[in-house]
Amino acid sequence: MQNTDAVRFRGVSFRYGQVRAVSGLDLTIPCGQTVALLGPNGAGKSTTIAMLLGLLAPAAGTVELFGAAPAAASTAGKVGAMLQETQLLPRITVAELLAFIRGLYPDPLPTDELVRLADLDELTGRRLERLSGGQSQRVKFAAAIAGRPDLLVLDEPTAAMDVESRHDFWRAMRRYARDGHTVLFSTHYVEEADESADRVVVIAGGRLIADGTPAAIRRSVGTHTVGIAVPVDGTGGLDRLPAVTAVEIRGDRAYLTTDDPDATVLALAGSGLLHDLEVHGARLEDAYLALTAASDTEPILEGAAR
Ligand SMILES: Nc1ncnc2c1ncn2[C@@H]1O[C@H](COP(=O)(O)OP(=O)(O)OP(=O)(O)O)[C@@H](O)[C@H]1O
Description:
By secondary structure, the protein is α/β, with parallel strands linked by helices.
């Protein structure tokens, strides 16, 4: 029977000398999920990805891809990766590179499919050194999916891309994910995780500190903002309304931070203050910042003063 989990980390730790980069990581990713790995600089994302790809061996614990060791899954062609430091060869065209990469696999994606998935229609005749940063990333993406991997791993694929290139890149990624493939990507752009992932895993200081759908993680901070037009009688008393924890006046608007927007809005209505209402949930970025601020984000130094 097919093992339904694409990725399984059990009690995984890794250290570089005295720096414990990953500590006791447990993470299971079922097939077909798109998972964003978020965390501040030095959180352990790249180390986690390197262990997942079998490039680093854990000091403790086990990593399995499709029920097998990472190296076995890679050899079987089940894994495609786009890593931060990959460089493209100069002097050949996009079409020549794709033909070469496709030749490495027994059952590659047809070229037109690859070109469509990676948005390369207008670039096939272009030499690789003439591509912009965003275009190069899409070619690397095409190279990563050429062998139809069941699991696609992307380490900060949109670093240094402009907004439009990032948008194009995620559209390409979502097309591949929609075909039932599993995708794990790391990013520093929290809004990309919100838009493109089914699930967000946050690590800090080498430890998993949050794991859930973007909506669940947004809700975990529990706060909402209720905006109204500044009352004609002034803003006195707004901070005493039910569930309100802070009041901020910006121009002719009053913004109330609340733990219970329903209770706050009902009280505003009861006081005749409900004019020009807006209600916002917390953004994923707010939740992410609250979570990482609350955790010890420094990696553990073993046997040394911190
Ligand atoms: N080759 C190395 N030698 C020593 N320490 C390392 C090495 N690579 C990473 N580290 C340390 O391990 C910890 C985790 O690093 P890692 O690169 O996995 O984090 P990251 O979340 O990918 O960071 P970033 O977002 O900056 O890429 C950090 O404290 C880092 O300084």
